[in-house]
Design brief:
α3 crosses α4, α6 packs across α7 and α7 crosses α8. The chain has one domain: Thiolase/Chalcone synthase (Peroxisomal Thiolase, Chain A, domain 1, 3-Layer(aba) Sandwich), CATH 3.40.47. A hairpin with a 2-residue loop joins β17 and β18. The strands form four sheets. Strands 1, 4, 5, 6, 7, 8, 9, 12, 13 and 14 form a ten-stranded mixed sheet that branches. It has a three-stranded mixed sheet with strand order 3-2-15. The chain has a three-stranded antiparallel sheet with strand order 16-17-18, with helices on one face. By secondary structure, it is α+β, with helices and mostly antiparallel strands. It contains twelve helices and 18 strands. The structure holds acetoacetyl-coenzyme A. The site of acetoacetyl-coenzyme A (CAA) has 26 residues, from α2 and α6.
Length: 398
Amino acid sequence: MTNHGANAAAGTIGIHDLSFATTQFVLPHTELARYNGTDIGKYHIGIGQQAMSVPAVDEDIVTMAAAAAAPVIARHGTDGIRTVVFATESSIDQAKAAGVYVHTLLGLPTSTRVVELKQACYAGTAALQFALGLVHRDPTQRILVIASDVSKYDADSPGEATQGAAAVAMLVSADPALLHIEEPSGLFTADVMDFWRPNYRETALVDGQESISAYLQAVEGAWKDYGEQGGRALGEFHAICYHQPFTKMAHKAHRHLLRCCGEDTDEAVVDRVLGRTTAYNAVVGNSYTASVYLGLAALLDETDEDLTGRPIGFLSYGSGSVAEFFAGTVVPGYHAHLRTAAHREAVDRRQTVDYPAYRELRDNSLPADGGDHMLPAQTGGPYRLAGTSGHKRLYEPR
Ligand code: CAA
């Protein structure tokens, strides 16, 4: 029995608006390859990456999040927004939710609950699912879901080529303009140490090959549960948005899923289902919690054909590990609500840096002495981290 029409009883709920932001700077993989002597084919073909976003010294998960969410608030106002759920793996504080800073920068009402969620790259999907539940309970409410991350591995490690940074803001509501999200979800959790970041570290630790196997195992597990919960058949999906730490991972994941389903694993079949979902991730890099939703943005923005009514699959994976497979259908008229020009501008306006400049930016860290430290103005984005004082981060509109 299928129950993927179950939302209909409560009215359709899903993504009403979607906006993303990224950083001021970008490092092309040609530049990384030139520095470390790697054949560029490994980056362009082997991992499927062209470039990665690099934050300015006055950019972080809060400034990117506010930049992503500001156009959503400008278009829809704050009425009915009573919850902000902020998902991140690269949290800036052990106690305070990063979303509280965003709440202030955006001038949201005090009558709002704000919370931060964590489970590696999966947390953006947890935030989305929590938002769907809240709207189901009260369809007059709209929930601001934000996923924002800076992906950082040790310099000169294999992970360095899979860094990146971006934030996605989504407004979740009843009668959404972009995507109805369906029930059910397929879920999977397994305790593995494939990628993690102890509180005392700025960079993630990773067992690269183990992380790829863990991801594929999670795809299989989440898909199996999705089927058992009455989900759609694989052939019904027009496209699938995968979590993309590097875009080749989406190819590996879909090939694995086809193999699990006993289907043909031809590269042409894989390409057809991935479609344009990798377009932004290939030039932005890994944005952890935001990655799968950059995949959705790319699909909607960059696909020429009309996607109305098409079922889209989502596979969200967070190391450690938790995964979820779910589906949505594209809403009639969605095209009028896209932010294609702004998204392309966010990617195109980045300034290219060479390897030494990138190293200087990535090695920069905030002083931990509690003194007053003002930061130079580098970002061209709408918000900046002005500095720190008394161990407090100071944000301001630019
Ligand atoms: N031309 C074309 N292809 C080439 C090539 C060349 N000249 N040289 C190498 N390649 C290919 C290799 O054959 C390989 O392809 P396959 O995977 O299809 O076999 C690919 O390029 C990568 O080569 P290696 O496996 O040798 O690369 P590596 O050991 O340097 O590491 C990595 C790659 C494991 C992804 C590493 O970048 C890493 O650890 N990244 C961080 C972890 C990560 O992203 N894991 C993904 C799953 S975990 C997750 O999804 C959560 C998350 O966001 C972190």
